[in-house]
Amino acid sequence: ILKRSSAKIGDTIYLSGPTGWADLGLKILREEKINCPDEKHAKKAFLYPEAKIDIGKRIADLKVNSGAAIDISDGLSQDAHHLAKASKVTLLFNENQIKKMYPNYFLKESVFYGGEDYQLLITHPFPLELIKEKDEHLSSLLFPVGKVIKQEKNLVLLESNGVNKALPDKGWRHF
Question: For FRET with 42, which of 29, 55, 102, 114 sits at 20 to 30 Å CA-CA?
Answer without folding.
Answer: 55
